[in-house]
Design brief:
Length: about 200
């Protein structure tokens, strides 16, 4: 996903006289340099590393326009975070900002739904007929989209490499609640796609 033009233009300015920072620097080291110097170069490195996965998460939880707006807002919030201390885990921090911003946006649009499980999802004969006509990937994407927000979110976070404990911290829920959401999500996806999850 390309960055919105407002952010792309801001980040593409030539940077001169930057202090040396090794290519293998951790995201936390890069963020510390950004907070200390305000140099766009460091933010660009973070964008290059995390923008794709943030956008993917937002797109699975909303539509293209909302995902693009929210990912732009996330980076604007990061740009304005220079007075803060360096977060201890950048990826979790970014996903927390993205999640909170998305929920705020969905509430504004009156699209926020938080139901844990909707039994009607598994009973739709028309949905099953439509699934039979689609490819396996489309089938999976439709089944994923049919999940309630919180279950889909837990599943996507797990696919992004977050541990059970990290997902619980990101969502301010207990690990048992996250286990339950993941179980419902996997069972739903297996029933619709037969995927090994």
């Amino acid at each position: 996903m390309n960055l919105p033009s407002k952010i792309k233009g801001w980040l593409s300015s030539a940077q001169v006289g930057l202090p040396y920072l090794k290519q293998s620097a951790s995201p936390e080291e890069v963020m510390a340099q950004y907070i200390a110097t305000g140099k766009k170069y460091y933010l660009t490195r973070l964008v290059n590393e995390f923008n794709g996965s943030l956008y993917h998460y937002l797109l699975t939880q909303s539509d293209k326009t909302t995902a693009e707006d929210v990912v732009q807002t996330v980076w604007l919030k990061v740009m304005n975070s220079q007075s803060q201390m360096t977060p201890t885990h950048i990826k979790s921090w970014l996903f927390t900002i993205a999640r909170n911003t998305l929920i705020d946006e969905l509430r504004k649009q009156n699209k926020w739904q938080y139901a844990e499980f909707d039994d009607q999802l598994s009973d739709s004969h028309n949905l099953e007929l439509a699934f039979e006509k689609e490819t396996q990937l489309n089938l999976f994407n439709q089944a994923l989209s049919a999940l309630p927000f919180l279950q889909r979110e837990a599943f996507i976070f797990q696919q992004e490499g977050f541990s059970l404990m990290e997902i619980a911290e990101l969502t301010h829920e207990s690990q048992e609640t996250i286990k339950s959401r993941l179980r419902y999500a996997r069972n739903h996806l297996k029933s619709k796609v037969g995927a090994k999850l």
